């Protein structure tokens, strides 16, 4: 962050503090206490609704157009409000730990520049209490792009003349139970990925030397075979695609695009010996059958994976088997 600058940005942060009973259980409260979920029982959708205190807090701080939203949150945490909770680690788009909803769009805090996201007051899209942007029709993406361009112009004006760069609205990643402020519990996604054995299962036959000793393990692969899954192996399990998916984030039973990407990564790996088992595992009502090909999952993958296209291909592969 610059030492001195004459521009500011306003962050409207959706904050959340869970009910005290939850914190009590996390500390190992009485095992005889009433067992009610802090996120409610019943439907999956209801289970993802937060139970606790929710409010929107506004922070206006000095910022430059090229600063990231993560830079701004760290400034707030260090100089304004140490109680604000958010998660991050690498700070440059590699770990996937800081996915949130920015102006209703799931994305990473550390790669979101103020210039690209700040909007003039009143221009923010309506975001519902589950963090979804209200989209009226198919032109929503075009409108979003036009808004982004207009917003970048006004941000450049502010940078040249001083004043407010605009307003940015932040909420936790949609589709996951919020834990505190901008931190969502992404365990449901990680558990789904774990269930699909996200590691190489090769044939396990040991190569041996002419003397019968175990030789170096070697799984040769042609560059064309590598190209089939190399892009998929870039997934950092950030959850952006899951938060963008109206089926997963909408609360329907669906293992989610991230888990399918991880499954697809190994199904397409020529060294893996369990492709058929892997396809059986996702050939379920809440697996590939639940994907409705909306392709919202493709729009903001920070690793450049065309998630919707990969979904399409894995669905076809499972059906053709
Ligand atoms: S496919 Fe992309 S958006 Fe989805 S979890 Fe992986 S890196 Fe994130
Ligand atoms: S902090 Fe690691 S991806 Fe943003």
Write structural notes for this entry.
With about 325 residues, the protein is of the alpha+beta class. The chain has two domains: about 10-180, Beta-grasp domain (Ubiquitin-like (UB roll), Roll), CATH 3.10.20; about 185-320, Fumarate Reductase Iron-sulfur Protein, Chain B, domain 2, CATH 1.10.1060. Helix content is about 30%, strand content about 15%. It has helices at about 20-25, 45, 70-80, 115, 140-160, 185-195, 225, 240-245, 255-265, 275-280, 305-320; strands at about 5-20, 50-60, 100, 105-110, 165-170, 180, 185. The strands form two sheets. Strands 2-1-5-3-4 form a five-stranded mixed β-sheet. A two-stranded antiparallel ribbon has the order 6-7. A hairpin with a 2-residue loop joins strand 6 (about 180) and strand 7. Helix 6 (about 185-195) packs parallel to helix 9 (about 255-265) and helix 9 (about 255-265) crosses helix 11. The protein is elongated. The N and C termini lie far apart (about 55 Å). The relative contact order is 0.13. Residues about 30-45 and about 135-140 have low confidence and may be disordered. Iron/sulfur cluster (SF4) binds near residues 96, 257, 261 and 303. FE2/S2 (inorganic) cluster (FES) binds next to loops.
